[in-house]
Amino acid sequence: MELANYHALYHACYRQEEQRTHAYHYLQGLLNPEIVRKSAENIALATVGIEGVRPLQQFLGESPWCDQPLLTEHRRQVGLTLGSQDGVLILGGSDCPKQGSASVGVKRQYCGEVGKVANCQAGVYLGYSSGKGYTLLDRRLYLPEEWFTPAYAGKRYHSRVPVDLTFQTKNELAWAMVAETHQAGTLAATWVTMDEAFGKDSQLLDRIAQETAYAYFAEVPTDTHLWLTEPPTEVPVYSGRGRPPTKRQLTADAPAPQTVAQLAAALPSSAWSCHALHEGSKGFIVAHLARLRVVTIRDGLPGPACWLVLRRSTATPSEIRYFLTNAPGDCPLDTMTHICSRRWPIETMFEQAKQLLGLNEYETRTWFGWHHHMSLVILAFGFLARCQLLFKPDAPALTLPQIILLLKAVLPKPDFDPDYALHLLHYQQQRIARAKKSHYFKQKELLNELLFDTQ
Which of 210, 348, 379, 420 has the fewest beta carbons closer than 10 A? Predict the structure, then answer.
């Protein structure tokens, strides 16, 4: 079976045969459309039976096996199958709402899935897209800064957060994935695309430009300030008192920078041209594009020269998106038009990974559990992308959801005889009883605390 052959590519990444077996069962479960919620328990029940529940849960959430070799090999395999010189690395964030406060990294913060501040875990992801297909590449769990305070020492311990871990912003996590991919050198890519949450970080853009061979194509907010031409600067004349000035500053007659929205409003109609953009399942979408050569701002002074690319909706002309790119001055507009639509596959990846592979359906609370689950989801996504490419000559229009339907017909199913069905029913009843008992004791402890506080 193709899944067994795919899994064999990663055998060397596991230290023990037992780990290989658990990982294979977990991949089977993630790819099985008949499993409604893809927790370790439900996957074990559907693949190996009741006896496999506890071992698979332990493998996922408690065992400290290192999953980084999986992602390293996955990146190499993507390079061999989907890799192309016009490949695009895509940064994106995906959040998972959570009840309670016991899960690693959980906090009330902005949650993209619900569009407001909510109790959730936040993940930063790296995807890859080329003319051959797309897949997820890497992941990082964002731990809010307060998780590193003494007040959270107990939560860090119980959720198995590494003791040497230090706080990193989401953009620092994003940079770590880009830098690691570049240093590995096993996946061809020319561009890094991102939404404005990352694009507004000039430090991240400069690091990509200076420390990698990639060009960035970053969406930026409407209040981003730029110059159309480089403003004059000078070192102030020495007044004769104190240390002579050495730092350059803008001259008194230097023009003020303008926002990208102001620059867009000043463009003549002739500056815009109509283009067809391909955005995955939505097909070809028509938009108007324009571009300007601009000068960025760094610490109040002129920074690198870049292109400002503007994309205007044909249906709603007032709806404009803004992108900065450090592409060369002679970069053709057609190339930018192509890249302008290449960030959107990350949204399709998140949607498909959640709907098809249970990206957000894990029930583990630990640091190990989150990373193990996400790494295996990424491998499952890579398998779908690999199948899509494999069957493309015979079925050019084959989609990832259709591959899932094909898998439904061929994935093995456990045999359920009447005795086992009763055994399974008894297991479920015991589980519900344990959950009720646990909930009762928690409520009792909370009530005792409240009564103690009022005395």
Answer: 210
- DSSP element (H, E) containing 92: strand 88-97
Query: What is the Cβ-side half-sphere exposure of residue 318, based on CA atoms within 13 angstroms?
Result: 0
Chain-centroid distance, C-alpha 153: 27
Closest CA to 6 of 356, 409, 389: 389
| Regions of the chain where pLDDT drops below 50 | none
Burial-class residue 410 by CB neighbours within 10 Å (0-12, 13-18, 19+). Answer: exposed
Give pLDDT, residue 437.
59
Task: Please state, rounded to an integer, the average pLDDT across all residues of the chain.
Answer: 89
- Are 19 and 11 in contact by the 8 Å Cβ rule? The answer is no
Task: Report the SS3 class of residue 267.
Answer: coil
SS (HEC) of 189-257: CCEEEECHHHHCCHHHHHHHHHHCCCEEEEEECCCCEEECCCCCEECCCCCCCCCCCCCCEECCCCCCC
pTM of structure? 0.88
Per-residue pLDDT, 401: 82
Please report the pLDDT score of residue 443 as a whole number: 59
Residue with tokens 């890497």: 138
Residue 428, pLDDT score: 58
As a whole number of angstroms, the distance between CA 189 and CA 125 comes to: 16
Pick from 120, 124, 220: nearest CA to 172: 124
The CB-side HSE value for 238 (13 A sphere, CA atoms) comes to 7
To 5 degrees, how large is the angle CA 233–CA 234–CA 237? Answer: 155
88-97 vs 191-194, strand pairing mode: parallel
